[in-house]
Design goal:
The structure is a homodimer of 168-residue chains. Chain A is 11% helix and 30% strand. Chain A contains 2 helices and 9 strands; from the N terminus they run ββαβββββββα. Chain A has a 6-stranded antiparallel barrel with strand order 2-3-8-7-4-9. In chain A, β7 and β8 form a beta hairpin.
Chain lengths: 168, 168
């Protein structure tokens, strides 16, 4: 069984994929264009400081969709020795390699001009199709969360190397 | 252009759709079954207190996918007079009526038994196909958020009627 989804817009980022990857933690600035057919769906969105973007990682290869266990490779960019990290299931991570290549990105809405949303903290490549936008409302903020030991250890190691980095 | 996505599992809830709807704010308890083919993707998930579930609202009708503006009808259940509410774009709301019927639900992971996740705070009907699971990590918690005036007014009205309800 399969379901069909369609792009409602796309990401514009003035950077190469490698440049976006290198900034995965803080994200980059960019513009989300919503296609004319869906532009009315944006009414009332001004005033939300943050939006949740669901995107389709169209550059994901069929073989990457068969991956079920990964090592958090993006941590290599932060100087973490990933040979010591455990291999974990893709649903325990934010890896782009997963059965359905869906990305969930929380962006800051800087301003809107019609059907163009200027945003911060994008971790999506130029041209990535957008499937949905939802407002970041108070119920999305879970104050008391717990993390597995393996994830806590990664956070600690990264913070030791980069004290000013925010949590991820 | 369309993309194809496939269920990795489904929701088991021992309640009718109407009963789930009536509890949309606090959510209900249920079990998320991940299909055997994807079960290895769950490794390492124990210890995360909360998970982000992306589901496909399979009961959404084609005509509901053409809706671009809505009134938050679920508020009627809380006694809000929705005739006074503004009609807003679907991307400014969590409405199930949207071009791609994707749901984003944050659940509390109570316990895992193999490929079965017992969870709290589900707002999905029994049988809803699951497309993806991501861990709720610190970066998903945005502390300083702003909301549009129309949304703030709804929150205030609901809180006046139901002082003990949490934000939504």
């Amino acid at each position: 069984m399969h379901f069909s989804v369609k792009p409602i817009g796309l990401v514009h980022v003035n950077l190469s994929d490698e440049e976006v990857k290198a900034k995965w933690l803080e994200g980059v600035e960019g513009v989300i264009e919503i296609y004319e057919d869906y532009a009315h769906g944006l009414e009332g969105i001004d005033g939300f400081s943050h939006l949740i973007i669901i995107a389709y990682l169209h550059k994901s290869l069929e073989e990457q969709r068969r991956v079920l266990k990964v090592k958090p490779k993006c941590l290599k960019l932060l100087g973490v020795d990933i040979t010591r990290l455990p291999e974990v299931g893709v649903f325990s991570t934010d890896s782009p390699h997963r059965p359905n290549p869906l990305a969930l990105t929380i962006v800051e809405l800087v301003e809107r001009e019609g059907r163009y949303l200027k945003v911060k903290h994008l971790d999506l490549f130029n041209g990535t199709p957008i499937l949905d936008i939802k407002p970041y409302t108070p119920s999305r903020r879970i104050d008391r969360i717990k993390l597995p030991l393996w994830y806590q250890k990664i956070l600690e190691e990264v913070k030791a190397k980069h004290p000013l980095l925010k949590d991820f």
